[in-house]
Amino acid sequence: MSRWKKIRKIARGVLGMGLTFGALGGALFSLVALVSTVFFPGGEDDLGFMIIAGAVWGGAIGASFSAILAIAAGGRSLDELSYRWVASVGVIGGLLLAGVIVGASWGDWPNWNAVVPFSILPLLGAGVGTASLLVARKAGRALRSGEETGSLLEG
Length: 155
Hints:
Strand content: under 5%
Number of strands: 0
Number of domains: 2
Structural class: mainly alpha
Number of helices: 5
Shape: globular
Order of helices and strands: HHHHH
Largest sheet: none
Radius of gyration: 18 Å
Oligomer: single chain
């Protein structure tokens, strides 16, 4: 495979993962917005912002996770990657994201609340990374790279 075909394949994967995570982030934040309006009335003005922020952050997280994974994997296929290794990459991505969030808003964190992103985001990164590998391996049995998606719909 030529170098440009590899680069296009990786870019397509990064974009696809970003769009998938963005859709999931928007859906998750829609649920959070729904629950917040039921239990905490009065914040209805921020619902659209919450959903858009979830989609944007989800897309950025998915694309960055996929790019880090593609670089760190060094050309290995998904079948060759272990769950522990992918979870480790997810933890690293979560730590980097927490560093960006806390670093960009350092003065706004009262007391020790800056610890929260450094505890939650690495766990989310590990969980989502492992789940992504599970889904990719499941889909990999039905569809190999370069095949048409019609084969997924056939029994």
